[in-house]
Records
---
Amino acid sequence: MNTNLIREVCVLSSDLIYSISEEKKITHFEAFELAIKNESMYFEFKNVKSLERLNMITYSKDEFNNFKRKKRVKKLIVKTLTSKQSEKLFPKDEKEQIMFAHFLFNFGFLTAINECFGGQELIVINSTSE
């Protein structure tokens, strides 16, 4: 199933750990260690089950760029950098949540997902203010 296709995607860390574990036939702890040490964040998967486990939400580059413009994500980053508090966002759906996380990751931000009665909440953490 080698398509030679390389894509930049944003996935939940738990899905990445399970996929690495499945692909390499190693424990989840070993997969976690492997992921942490991989500074390039480039992972290759050949096993269909590993790819399916990634649970990727797909979007085109144009769709991603339109999203960034529409949501003014750079403004959010500046607000977070100048604030001592974390910013909370309530994306309208999972795809929007993943695109936010993807954009923020590209700028060095970590994100966390919190499930609550009101739906999923994306928390943007400013690690430089701690």
---
Amino acid sequence: MRHVILSNETSAMARIPESFWKKHEVYEFDLLPPEKGTSIHNYIDQNMVGDAMINRTLDAEEDRQMAEIIRRLQVEGEQANAGNQ
């Protein structure tokens, strides 16, 4: 059911009884939303969010370091080529 709605398969969605659409609020991220009084924040594991942010920061630092290494190698290569001429 979730796949049908998220992939916007209108022919399949048209077969779902109208009473279902009247009875349930449907969000684009989930077919059957949480009970009233709760929010998406109740379902988020803050530890996982923290871990993801740390990993993202580490990945960005790794990318920066790799770009610096490549830049240094290019400069060394250009200097070696200039010295050979």
---
Amino acid sequence: MRSVLLSCLVLLCATTFTWAQGSKHPAPTTVYIPTNTPPPINYKYHDGVALLRDGTLLKGRFQSNGRSNFTYRATSQATRQKIGASMIRRLALAGADTLVTNRRDSTIFFRFGNRLYRQLTDGATMILDRMFVVDEDRGKIGYQLYVLDENDDLHKFTSLNKLNKWFYDFQEKSGRKLSDAYLNQNEIVKAVAQLNQK
């Protein structure tokens, strides 16, 4: 009887051990998920003129780092100097992204309040964004658009729906009508530039 009991206990232990070994999950395999991350932007040097907040005028070549600094060189052989966006009052650079601005020859950055903005349209009502690119990222407008109206009031838009509502009100106030369709950001910028020219 003892031997039967002992053999049942050994058999139970062996079965439990085998079952425990077999129930382990297999090692997870690596799964690669493709992403749609764009390639990094290759910022170039552009000829330009900067007016700093202290009144200094800089002429030379400027390169953005895409965030809050510009690299400045008086000539191509001169040493590089970092200029923070907080130091710049106005910056005009050669070259323009004609897909997003109505300017063909240059891109303007200017200070309003304590921030530097890229000017997308000229005129009494201007559309601005906070992207520090000239023509490196073609057709790209910042996620947030800003409208500086003729009363120097700055309006911030993060929703395309609200931007369209503002645009239709702007059309009615100007007395000219361009479109009744729902427009994307680039189309609104081009339409405001057209309305400002008339």
---
Amino acid sequence: MEAAPMEVAFLNNDPLDSVVIDALSGDTLYTISTSPKLAFGKRTTTICDAEGRAIAQYKRRWVQDQVELNGVAKNVSSWLPRDGAFSSLRGFLAPNGRTYVWKRLWGQSRFQLIDRQTEQVVAQSEGASLTRGMGIEFVAEVAPILDTLVLSFVICEDDRREQETLLAPTAVSGE
């Protein structure tokens, strides 16, 4: 990323339940909350702006996950499709008319957002550590699509964590 980066930080390591702030000013940008898990995996994550208005929802459903952004509802599989069945790439068409793709860095819990027209990295996530919370660093050019960027990242990060949970070895009792 060449231009002076901007950054948002998640105050909680859970992307589904966190406050997202401007890392420089400390101003609250979003509040993300998720309903308790219901039968058949139904949960709804709501993203509210700094004024408390719901701007996006991510609805996990048994058959088809859905997303609603600024009043427009779509299936996640069409709004943020994978490049292939086993691909870690997930792309979206942003309100600015450009196509972006989140790419998970191999063997890491980090993502890069790539502008498909220029193939430039325009954002990258940082996982939480002992000294720092989870965050997304991005170039100023994508600031106008920050709502879309945050929603798409939350979905990708939730998916990554779910996959890691499914692939993690389970403890076996020696009894």
